Amino acid sequence: MGIRVGIDLGTTFSAVAKIDPRTGTPVIIKNNEDSPTTPSVLCFEADGTVLYGQEAKDMQLTGDTNTASFFKRSMGRADFAAPIRGRTYDATELSSILLKKLVAEAEGQCGEKIDAAVITVPAYFTSLEREATIEAGRRAGLEVIAIINEPTAAALAYGLHKSGAEQTVMIYDLGGGTFDVTLARITDQKITILGSDGDHELGGKDWDDCIARYLAGQFYEQFGEDPAEDMAAVNSLLVTAENVKKQLSSRERVDVPVSYRGNRAMITVTEEIFEEITEFLMGNTREVAERLLQSVELGWNNIDGVILVGGSTRMKMIHKFVRQMCGKDPLTGVNVDEAVALGAAIRANMDLEEEPRPMGFLSAKKREMPAIRGAKKVTDATAHALGMIAISKDGERYENGIIIPKNSPIPAANTRAFQMRVRDKKSELEVYVLQGHHQRPLDNTVTNKYVITKIQKVGSGKSIIDVTYAYNTNGVIEVSAVQKETGKQLPIRVEPVPEDMSWTDRSPKENSQGAAPQVEVILAMDMSGSMSGTPLKMAKEAAVEKFVRAMDAEVVRVGLVIFAEKTVCELRPTDDYRKVISTIEKLTIGRTYGYGTSAQPFTEARAAFSGDADMRYIVVLTDGCWSHADRAISEAKTCHQQGIEVMALGFGDADHNFLKKIASTEKFASLTDLSGLGGSFSKIAQVIGDAGITPL
Ligand code: AMP
Q: How far is residue 331's CA from residue 339's CA, in Å, rounded to a whole number?
């Protein structure tokens, strides 16, 4: 069994660290060129060889297009594919190739096998980006012990040197392609992360771009030719720009020779010019830092010190910025390039301390190894709120229903109950998980679609599903679900998010997806003389037991219209089923409605609907022929045209042909006998329930 290392898998540079077994101190494993960091660049050669690090970077500088860099920015993105030599690579694949190379070289350098690692990621990496990083580690043959946030790792490394009173520190991490700012409370025993914020698209490369643009602009002013229009010239300008930037970290001015199309210019870049052309970038980092301070209710004056991490913090303007904001110089003792890997190495070996294993090499190793310096308990926080797509209180729009707020300590979990009607055919519940705190769902990262399956139909079919959303210690989202009635854990299928999520920008009322459509049903009962006695008793019983009680009051409103010689709306559609049932039970034949069959229910029923139902049904129950059948058919047709479904249920002397004419489709017309009334009502209830009920 081998050793455990910490790996800083950076956008532009990566580093590997281990624990020195003699001192218990984390140390960087230098690469073959004796450098603590290795460029995160790959180059694929024609014979299948893959170059990496400085060699690959050199190839990139010569203009070789079979190279890949900055792929960390695309981790977890399904739409990223780098085409190289007739193949495409996603960011996970590229990262795993790089990791494998880094690990092999580190093994060669330290003469020990490496089989497990803690890999660092920016604090604001989403769950998908973290999962992709874990996967890259696995594919590189590593056991990924944990994923930790880069600033947290830096705080661990900082803790190596400091002891004493509790300090509130800001970790300002500006790398090649990412910016992270984190607040932490550090004591001798523990590190508590108060919160993080960051910008995925901001890093040293943006400073390079500014210098390159400046050089191109100056060149254009002198010669009227713009090198920015030529890809090869731009690439070479970018390389020059990075060099200029680095020199400006220790010098006040740099004279830069720029040649293009036979012309040569000498352009001076001073510290002041550099600050001026990149002022907006500093403004961006300041905005992110202040947003974070505000979110945890702290001010610059509460900060005891700023730890600088990432190669770009060597720029003088960053030190000036810290002095300006805090009135103090940045904290020292942390090497900006090495801190993250060193902290990760501490974290990778901390478990060995906490969980001594009784058998095997590891425990022997533990006995040999002195206490890990800098090891302390870490409570991390999530940089992203976790939410789900929910319907706003007023039912007007979809919104981000936050379940775990931003900057909560992790691991964190929270449970939400979903009430749903389980149908025989489709017993699944879909939830969309969001990362971010923006109210509009699509302003956040929609991480996954989780389909909760195998929900069982219990009793009436109404069920409560407890869905638990969690961040594990790696900051990866985990969703689990339990059906309350059965107490059983439900299997979950994770599906990619559909490309078209535009329905979340429409009103839930316009969509049937995700929202429970509101259904109204009017039960139209024939109360003519022929119904007296047993037919009425049985009809009432069937209507109550097999129809009303089978409905879901949260989705279906039920109303009641009676017709004989005249038509009376006894009850407008309501979700108060007790009232519906008592109204049905009180029905009697007699003077109120008359004994004849001259009336029809459609005109009254149509007028009784509330107007905001998504689906409307009239269920007619009759036991005979109506004297004005033509008028009834014509009124029924008006209903059909208005999208009102008419279902006709007849028994006794009812005429099937007539029922077919008033029903909106033939299959909605059925003729039965008294004993079959209950069964027929059940079927109708099922059809209405199936059409109208989706997860709540
Ligand atoms: P990292 O991702 O932390 O390795 O940071 C790499 C970034 O740091 C790149 O954009 C480098 O250009 C930048 N960098 C490295 N050294 C210096 C320096 N001396 N001055 C300014 N930026 C630097």
A: 13
3-state secondary structure of 64: coil
Cα separation values, 371 from 65, 148, 200, 352, 367, Å: 47, 21, 36, 10, 10
Q: Which residue positions in the chain have pLDDT lower than 50?
A: 355-367, 512-515, 692-696
Ligand 1 lining (C-beta closer than 6 Å): 10-13, 175-176, 204-205, 242, 245-246, 249, 310-312, 314-315, 337
Q: What is the pLDDT of residue 369?
A: 67
pLDDT of residue 162: 65
594: left (phi over 0), alpha (psi -120 to 50) or beta: left
- Phi and psi torsions of 178, nearest 5°: -140, 150
| Prediction pTM value | 0.71
Of 466, 472, 469, 470, the residue nearest 489 (C-alpha): 466
CA distance 562 to 510: 33
Q: Which residues pair with 183 in a beta bridge?
A: 170, 195
From atom 15 of ligand 1, which residue's Cα is the shortest distance away? Answer: 311
15: enclosing H helix or E strand? strand 13-19
Q: Which ligand 1 atom minimizes the distance to the CA of 205?
A: 10
338 CA distance to ligand 1 centroid (A)? 12
Helices (DSSP H) in 462-609: which residue ranges? 534-542, 577-585, 602-608
How do strand 50-52 and strand 41-44 relate by DSSP bridges? antiparallel
Side-chain half-sphere of 10: how many Cα atoms within 13 Å?
A: 33
Judge contact between 307 and 191, C-beta under 8 A. no
DSSP letter for 160, please: T
Residue where the block lists tokens 């705190």: 437
On the question of a cis peptide bond just before residue 491, with omega within 30 degrees of 0, the verdict is no
Is residue 332 classed exposed, middle or buried when 0-12, 13-18 and 19+ CB atoms within 10 A define those classes? exposed
What's the length of the chain? Answer: 696
Q: What is the pLDDT of residue 487?
A: 92
Q: Which residue has the tokens 């973290």?
A: 130
CB 24 within 8 A of CB 38: no
How confident is the model at residue 200, as a pLDDT?
76
Instruction: Give the separation between CA 177 and CA 346, rounded to whole angstroms.
Output: 25
For residue 315, report the distance from its CA to the centre of ligand 1, in Å: 8
User: Which amino acid is present at 666?
Assistant: E
DSSP lists the bridge partners of residue 144 as 117
Q: Atom 16 of ligand 1 has which residue's CA nearest to it? A: 311
Terminal C-alpha separation, the chain: 52
E strands, 90-241, are 114-121, 143-149, 167-174, 179-186, 190-199
